[in-house]
Amino acid sequence: MKQQIQFREIDGGMRFYSLLGFIGLFVLAGLGAAYFMEHNGHHVTGMTNQIIWGTPHVFAVFLIVAASGALNVASISSVFGKTPYKPLARLSGLLAIALLVGGLAVLVLDLGRPDRLIVAMTYYNFKSIFAWNIILYIGFIAIVAVYIWMMMERRMNHFTKLAGLFAFIWRLILTTGTGSIFGFLVAREAYDAALMAPMFIIMSFSFGLAIFILVLMAACKWSDRPLGNLIVYRLKNLLGVFIASVLYFVMVYHLTNLYITEHHGVERFILLDGGVYTNLFWFVQILLGSLVPLALLYHPATGKSRGWIGIASLLVIIGGLAQMYIIIIGGQAYPLELFPGMEVTSSFFDGGINAYVPSLPEVVLGVGGIAIALAAVVIGTRVLGFLPVSLADDQVDPHHAA
Amino acid sequence: MSDSANIDTYRRRFLGGTATALAGLSVAPGVFLHEVARARPADEAVTSDVRWGMLIDTNKCANGCNDCVTACNEEHGLTGHGRPETDAQWIRKVELRDKQTGHTQSLPLLCQHCEHPPCVDVCPTGASFKRADGIVLVDKHICIGCRYCMMACPYKARSFIHEDLQDQLPHAPRGKGTVESCTFCVHRVDNDRTPACVEACTAENHNAMVFGDINDPDSDISKQLKQHSSRQIRADLDLNTGVRYRGI
Amino acid sequence: MLNPMQKILHILLALSMAAGLLPASAWAGGGSLLPVVPEAQDRFSETQGCVEPTDEMRRNHMEHILHQRDETVYRGIRTKQYSLEQCINCHVSDTPDAPRYSSEEHFCNSCHTYAAVRIDCFQCHADRPVKSSNPQTLSGQMKSDMQPSALSAMPHQALATEVISHE
Ligand code: SF4
Ligand code: SF4
After folding, report:
1. Which atom of ligand 1 is nearest to the CA of B241?
2. Pick from B92, B143, B144: CB nearest A346
3. Alpha-carbon distance A372 to A370, whole Å?
4. What's the pLDDT at B120?
C-alpha cells in the first residue's frame, strides 16, 4: 500500500513570530524606500535617463524568473511522476507564488506612478509584451493556486497531474515572456539575441531550485522536522545539472554574439574592458556563482555537507543577481550605436559608457521584495499544511534501505 | 460665420446630434484634404491625410549652435535641476567625428516620430501613442512610469521626470513620474504654426530645419525630400522615421 | 471632532448640493460649514455663468473635462469650452499671489477638500493662469476672424456670444 504523506502547518509561538517580525522589518524598510523614492522623485536613486532600469529591476526580474523555477519541484513530481519529490510539491507551489508576488511588488513600487496601478490593470495595449506579461503573471498565480488546491484537497487529487501539466506549460510561457521583455529591445545590442528567452528558462531552473533548497532546509530546521539526505542529495544533484546548463547557455550566447560583427563592441565591453561589469561577469557570475558551487556540490566531502550545500545555493543566488545586473544594467551602460564609425558626444551622454551606482533606497527596495516573498512563505506554511511532517528518507522513499 | 457654425456642430455632436449638422460646415469634409491640414478648425480631429515630418540639413547646422535646443526648452518650460543625468532633454545637439577622417559634424537629435514606433509597441497601457497625423506622444494621464518605452526607443529620445515640477506652461503639461519626449510642438502644429526649434533655426537664418506635411507632394519638405538624397538614422530598423537628415 | 448631529447636517448638505438643491448664493456665501468658493473672473454669457448651467457643472464638470482631455490628446481637438486651461483662466485670479491648488482658497480645492476628492490634475497642469507666450494656443476656432490680441483680451466673451447666437 502506498504510504500517505502527512502535512501539517508549522507551529506558532515565539519562534514563528520573531522570524516573521525579523522579515517584517525588511518588508517595512522596502516600503519606506519606495515611499522615499516616490515622494522625492527618482532623482534620489541611481537611475537616470541613461540607466533607465536599475537595481529594483535586477531584483524584480530575478525574483520573477526564480518564481517559475521554484515550481520545478512540483512539476517534476506531478508531471514527470517522480514520487520522491511529491512531499515537496506543495511547498514548491507556495514558493513560486511568493517569489512572483515579491518580484511584482518591487516592479510596481518602482513605477513612476505606482498610484496608477489600476490604470495598468485596466488599459491594455495588446501589442506590448509587457502587458502580456502582466496577464501571464496574474494567470500564473491563479493556476498555481488551483494546482495547490488540487494537491491539498483529496477529492481533487486525480486532477493534480492535469493542473500540474498546465502550470508547467504556463510557467514555460511566462519565463519566455519575461525573457522577451529584453528580447524585444532590438535597438540595444546586448539584448538583440534569440537566445534570450531559452536562456531565461534555464536560468529560472537554477535560481528557483537554489532558493527552494535554502527555504526547505531552513523550514525543516526551524520547525524541527526531519529532512533526510536522500531528498537533499537529489535536489543538489539537480541543481548541479542546472548550473552547468546555465553555464553552457551563457557560453553559447557569447559565442554567437562574437559571430555577429555589430555585437563585437558590446561583447568586448562585457567580457574584457567593461570594468565593474567585466569583473561581475568573470568573478561573480562565472567563478563564484557557477564554478565554485559546482565544485562544492560535486566534491565528495562538501557535497555531503548540508552547510556547504546551503552555501553553494546561496552562491548560485548571488551569481544569478550578478547575471541579472550584467544583463539589465550592463546592457544599458553600453551606448546605443546611432552613427556607426563615428565618435559621438552630446550633453545627453551619447556615445559614452553610462555611469551607474546603485543607491541605498534601490537596494533596500529590492531586498524588501525578497522579504515579501519570504514573509509570504512563512505565513503560508503557518496557515496551511504546506510542509510535510517528516522528510526522513523512509518517508520520501519507502523502498529506501536505510 | 463658419467658425461659429463649427462650435455649434461640435456642441450638437457632443450632445449626440446627427451628422446632418455637418451640412452647416462651409468646407465639406474631404474636399480640400490639404486645405484641412493647413487650417484645420479647432473642433475637427486630426486625420492621416497628413503626416508631419522634418528634414534636417546637417551641412547647414552650425557647430556649437544651440538655438533649437534653447527654443525647445523655453517653449516647454524645460528647466534643468543641475543634474544633467536626470534632466529632461527633448532635443539635443550631437557632435560627430569620423574616426577615419577626423571630419566633424553637428546635428540636432529629437524624437524621430517613427511610423512604426517601438515605444508605442512596448507601452503596456497604451500611453505612448501615435496620432493620426504621425506625431508620437505620451498620454501622461495613463502613463504609469514604467520606462519600457525609454528602453525601446533606439534614439534615446525620451526623458523621465525625476522630480516634482511647478508652474508648468499650460500648453506643455508635464509632471513627476511620467515619461515625455518631443511633441513636434503639437500645440503649435494644431494652430497652424511650426515647431519652436524650426522657428528658431530659421530666425537665425541657418535654415537647417524644414517642417511640413510629407504626404502633401506640394509641400516644401516633400519637394526637398524628392530633390535631394536624405537618410534616416538607423534605417536598418525599418521604422520609417518622420525626421530625415541630409549630409550624414 | 464632529458630533453626530453635525455629521448628519454635513451629509445632508453635501447631498442636497450634489442634487443641486441649494442655490448658488447659499453655497458660496453660506455658513462656516460650507466651502468658500471663489468668484469666477468672467461670465459665459449674460444669462449663464459657466460654460454649462451651474448645476450641471457642479455635478459633471469632471465628465466634460475628461471628455475634452481625450479629444485634445488623441484627436487634436482644441476647442475651448471645456478645456481645463480655460477653467483655470476664469476661476483662478492671475495675480502673482493667486492661491495654488494646495490651498483651500484655490477654486478647485475649495470644494475638493470639502467633498474629500483627490485629483492629480495639477501635478502636471498649471494651477494658475499663465500668461502664455503662445497667444494662438488659446485661440482655437476664432483665430481666422480675430486678432490674437483681441483674443487674449476677451476669450470668453467672444466664445460666449458666438455660441449663444446659435441657440
Ligand atoms: S524616436 Fe523613439 S520616442 Fe520617438 S517615435 Fe521613435 S521610438 Fe518613439
Ligand atoms: S513609461 Fe509610460 S509611456 Fe512609457 S511605456 Fe511605460 S506607461 Fe508607456
Report:
1. 6
2. B92
3. 5
4. 96
For residue range C24-78, list pLDDT tens digits in order. Answer: 444 444 445 777 888 888 888 888 889 999 899 999 999 999 999 999 999 999 9
pLDDT digits (tens, 9 = 90+) for B30-47: 334 344 445 688 889 999
- Domain B34-246 matching CATH 3.30.70.20: the answer reads yes
Residues of A in contact with B125 (CB under 8 A): 119-120, 123-125, 131
Q: List the residue whose alpha carbon is closest to atom 7 of ligand 1.
A: B153
Residue identifier of the C-alpha nearest atom 2 of ligand 2: B143
Task: Note the pLDDT of residue C149.
Answer: 37
> Which position has the higher pLDDT, C24 or B124?
B124
- Where do the structural domains in chain B lie, given as residue ranges? 34-246
- Cβ-nearest to A125 among B92, B123, B158: B123
The reply to whether A386 falls in a domain is no
Please say if the pLDDT value at position C131 is more than 90: no
CB C86 within 8 Å of CB B42: no
Residues of chain A falling short of pLDDT 50:
1, 402
Answer yes or no: is A197 within a domain: yes
Are the C-beta atoms of A68 and A96 separated by less than 8 Å?
yes
pLDDT at A168: 92
Q: How many domains does chain A have?
A: 1
* Minimum CA–CA partner of B123 in chain A: A128
Nearest residue of B to residue A356, measured between CA atoms: B85
**Tens-place pLDDT, residues A296-323:** 999 999 999 999 999 999 999 999 999 9
B49, B130, B169, B188, best to mutate vs chain C, most C CBs in 10 Å: B169
Query: Is residue A342 included in any domain, yes or no?
Result: no
Are B216 and B48 in contact by the 8 Å Cβ rule? The answer is no
**Structure-model confidence comparison of residues B21 and B77, the more confident one:** B77
Q: Does A181 touch chain B (CB under 8 A)?
A: yes
Neighbour-count burial of C106, counting CB atoms closer than 10 A to its CB (0-12 exposed, 13-18 middle, 19+ buried): buried
Query: What pLDDT sits at residue B4?
Result: 43
B42, B139, B140 ranked by CB distance to C77: nearest: B42
Predicted local distance difference test score (pLDDT) of residue A259: 85
Terminal-residue alpha carbon distance, chain B: 50
CATH of the domain at A369: 1.20.1630.10
The residue of chain C with its CA nearest to that of B183 is: C73
H/E element, B108: strand B104-110
Estimate to the nearest angstrom the gap between the alpha carbon of A226 and the chain centroid. 27
Q: Give the pocket of ligand 1 (CB within 6 Å).
A: B 111-114, 117-119, 136, 153, 155, 157-158, 181
**pLDDT (0 to 100) of residue B40:** 83
Q: Which residues touch A219 (CB under 8 Å, ≥6 apart)?
A: A10, A91, A225, A377, A381, A387
Mean pLDDT of B154-171: 95
Contacts of residue B166 in chain A, CB cutoff 8 Å? Answer: none
> Which whole number is the average pLDDT over B95-115?
96
The predicted complex's ipTM stands at 0.90
Contacts of C23 (CB under 8 A, 6+ apart): none
What count of residues does chain C have?
167
List the domain range (segments joined by +) for residue A269: 14-336+348-381
- Cβ–Cβ gap B137/C73 under 8 Å: yes
Is residue A228 classed as helix, strand or coil in its secondary structure? Answer: coil
pLDDT(B186) > 70: yes
Smallest CA–CA separation between B96 and chain C, in Å? 34
Q: Which chains touch B (3 or more CB pairs under 8 A)?
A: A, C
